Amino acid sequence: MAAPSSPHTRILVIEDDEVIGRHLETGLRGGGYACTWCRTGASGVAEVSRTDPDVVLLDLGLPDGDGVDIARRLRADHPSLLIVILTARSDEIDVIAGLDAGADDYLVKPFSLSVLLARLRAHLRRRPAATASQEAPLSVGDLTVDTVARRCLLGGQEIMLRPKEFEVLALLARHPGAAVSRETLMEQVWDENWFGPTKTLDVTIASLRRRLSEAAAARAGVHPPEITTLRGHGYRLESSTPSSN
Ligand code: CA
Fold first, then answer.
1. Ligand 1 ion: residues within 5 Å (CB)
2. Of 15, 47, 85, 131, which cross-links 103 as Cys (Cβ 3.0–4.6 Å)?
3. Which residues pair with 59 in a beta bridge?
4. Is residue 4 part of a domain?
5. CA 227 to mean position of chain CA atoms
6. With 0-12 CB in 10 A as exposed, 13-18 as middle and 19+ as buried, what is 134?
């Protein structure tokens, strides 16, 4: 991964709106990025396969398909690709669908270019550090979080998590039974200079809970740890099997 804002950091914009696409292309190049712009989902997917960019900015409403499906395809084929959804749909359900499909982040239109550039800097700054850890696998009840291999196992079977879900779970699993504040989660998983709303944390926690319970439902006798909400403070991860912890 190239350094933030390097011309070697390559961004692909998949956006059918001429005004927004042109604005992004101009702004991203002005921000020091190499930028390519595709106007359809199909051409965007082909371009990702051909050029292997670092980042995709993905419009959800494309003429030839739903951006959520495209996000899912891109994530399946390119695990390390940074995917940021651009959506005019501010409903939580659409945001959750996009994040579940594998997107790393989202911005609701209209957004300012400076906010987009700040988000990209934050993501790009964080990514290399995420793989630098050498800590031993973390275990809470039947859950194991291996931060070196970046794998999450429940009852010995892998659960696929998107990057932020993994990082939130790993941070909670480092302190099982202890309260972790919203501020700590936002600073350590998102960015130390985070200035936006923290709704993205709630969305990530909700998605994480759902993935854990769905994985447990598919595995007889396995109990996932519970993420308890501490109102006005943060979250706590605790084993749901009293006998095992
Ligand atoms: Ca569109």
1. 16, 59, 61
2. 85
3. 86
4. no
5. 18
6. exposed
Q: What is the pTM of this model?
A: 0.55
157 with 225, same domain: the answer is: yes
Task: Give the list of residues 6+ apart from residue 181 with CB closer than 8 angstroms, or none.
Answer: 233, 234
Q: Which tokens go with 158? A: 């892998």
Note the pLDDT tens digit of each residue in 193-235.
Answer: 555 567 889 999 999 999 999 999 988 888 889 999 999 899 9
Same domain, 121 and 190: no
pLDDT in tens, 119-178: 998 888 876 544 444 678 899 999 999 988 889 999 989 999 998 999 999 999 988 898
CA 203 to centroid of ligand 1, rounded, Å: 23
Judged on CB neighbours under 10 Å (0-12, 13-18, 19+), 9 is buried
